[in-house]
Design brief:
Number of helices: 17
CATH topology of the largest domain: Rossmann fold
Number of domains: 2
Helix content: 25-40%
Strand order of the largest sheet: 6-7-8-3-9-10
CATH class of the largest domain: Alpha Beta
Number of strands: 22
Strand content: 15-25%
Length: about 475
């Protein structure tokens, strides 16, 4: 890719970018959210039209106008939000749009046999007639890889492929990527997780503010150097210092028992405290907190807020008692992407901007500007659509929405998933600021270093129950994993 530029209203996303990858190369592409990585890859895949520049395959200029044209040139992108249909079989998803030749009936025996061969090639032992909706995220990812191989892809782009994978699933993915390399397939690997880049990639290209900062051999660069290239400044530590004063109990949950579960859960939370929730994927961390917030049905539970017993059967009641829930899926559940930044910020507390039956545009603007400045949301204006912001800034909008709702207890589920190191640091600072104001945070995270560094106390969840409560010197990776396993 040579001289690639792309602008959106109010934003220059790419500025004269050059990027290349060789046959059989595993190339990392890193940068802060909003650096331009996804825009560059969407141009390569034909999802976006470039404003200027050229793309060459084997040295020959090509005009990639849509994903079908990209596929014809051997380019496939596997998005973080997987592009599969749950109601169709594995085989149907792999060969979607190519199930039969024109005018002929589908030869299901042949389709299923071809799908089985592709699955065997990547070491996935699954019945090709099985519905995709019954698969785990890791298994769905394997279906996406099989689909890419079915198209004879030469270049596979992977956008945050490890976001929801366990360690074993990630190891299996890396084995597949190494096999792709042996077959001469180039892999462009976009990730914010430094340890993965150093384990699987050979070269790394860094982007910042829509430009290429540089490309390095992974073997000759350090994590600290990459971070400095990404953020444009030296970062002394990934995590800010914790200095909050922990006060009285603000929330107590007793004997929470969810539908179809035998275990019950009890825990407490104090003002100014960050309570970490650790455990393996699938242990029940999110499900417990969804129940506390009134999203999911519970059989029985006693909840006390500031010593008073309360009833929480739905999110509206939770919100009434000052509880907020920042969902792990901010795009599907935390934001209305087609609404403006301003509309999203005020959405959880509309009465505060109402005069009679109407909202006050002036008050809306004031609140939006206040939180854009306070939380440091990078946006061209308060009228920018939330869907056009980077992941880190979308997360900040969600935080602003709940702070505007005057929430004192914030449940944050994977608050730094899919955002870069600079934005992560800013989210951590926001958490610390909230705690210093006497607000309380429940932090659910799959990143163990994050839980260990940010928490005053850690609850380890296993099989839908609290397996351990760790405090002080007991908060360690060894202790967390001992109880989680």
């Amino acid at each position: 890719m040579r001289g690639i530029s792309k602008s959106f209203p109010g934003v220059k996303a790419l500025d004269n970018v050059g990027f290349s990858v060789a046959e059989g190369e595993i190339r990392a592409l890193v940068g802060e959210n909003g650096a331009g990585k996804s825009t560059l890859m969407k141009i390569l895949n034909g999802n976006y039209k470039k404003d200027s520049g050229e793309i060459l395959i084997d040295g020959v200029p090509v005009n990639i106008t849509d994903p079908q044209v990209a596929g014809a040139h051997g380019i496939t992108i596997i998005f973080q939000e997987l592009n599969l249909v749950d109601e169709l079989s594995i085989a149907e998803n792999i060969f979607a749009g190519r199930l039969s030749e024109k005018g002929r009936l589908v030869n299901w025996k042949e389709i299923n046999q071809k799908a089985r061969q592709l699955l065997e090639r990547i070491g996935f032992d699954a019945d090709p007639t099985r519905l995709v909706g019954s698969l785990t995220v890791a298994e769905k990812q394997m279906v996406e890889i099989a689909k890419a191989l079915s198209r004879n892809s030469r270049i596979i782009l992977m956008d945050e492929p490890s976001a929801t994978l366990t360690k074993n699933e990630l190891d299996a993915l890396f084995d597949i990527i190494r096999d792709l390399k042996k077959s001469g397939i180039a892999v462009i690997y976009i990730s914010h997780r430094m340890e993965e880049i150093f384990e699987i990639c050979e070269t790394v290209t860094v982007m910042r503010d829509g430009q290429i900062i540089g490309t390095r051999d992974v073997a000759s660069v350090s994590s600290a150097e990459l971070v400095e290239m990404m953020v444009g400044r030296e970062m002394s530590s990934a995590y800010p210092t914790r200095n909050a004063v922990i006060g009285d109990e603000v929330l107590r949950v007793e004997h929470l028992c969810r539908k179809d579960r035998k275990q019950d859960v009890s825990f407490s939370l104090r003002s100014g405290e960050v309570l970490g929730i650790a455990g393996l994927v699938g242990a029940g961390r999110t499900e417990i907190m969804r129940a506390v917030f009134g999203v999911d049905y519970i059989k029985s539970c006693d909840v006390y807020v500031r010593g008073q017993k309360v009833k929480i059967n739905n999110p509206a009641q939770a919100k009434k008692h000052g509880i907020a829930f920042l969902t792990e899926d901010r795009r599907a559940e935390g934001l209305t992407l087609d609404f403006t930044v301003k509309a999203n910020i005020v959405a959880a507390n509309l009465p505060s901007i109402c005069k009679g039956p109407f909202t006050s545009g002036k008050r809306e603007n004031e609140l939006a500007d206040e939180y854009i400045q306070k939380i440091r949301i990078k946006t061209p204006s308060r009228s920018q659509k939330a869907g056009n912001l980077s992941g880190g800034n979308q997360q900040k909008v969600v935080v602003s929405k709940w702070l505007n709702a005057d929430s004192d207890i914030l449940i944050m589920d994977e608050p730094t998933r899919g955002i870069d190191v600079g934005a992560k640091r800013e989210i951590y600072e926001i958490i610390n600021d909230l705690a210093s104001q006497g607000k309380s945070v429940i932090l659910i995270s799959s990143e163990l270093p994050e839980v260990l560094a940010m928490s005053d106390r850690v609850l380890v969840v296993k099989d839908d129950a609290i397996a351990a409560e760790l405090t002080g010197s007991d908060i360690s990776a060894v202790e967390v994993m001992r109880y989680a396993l």
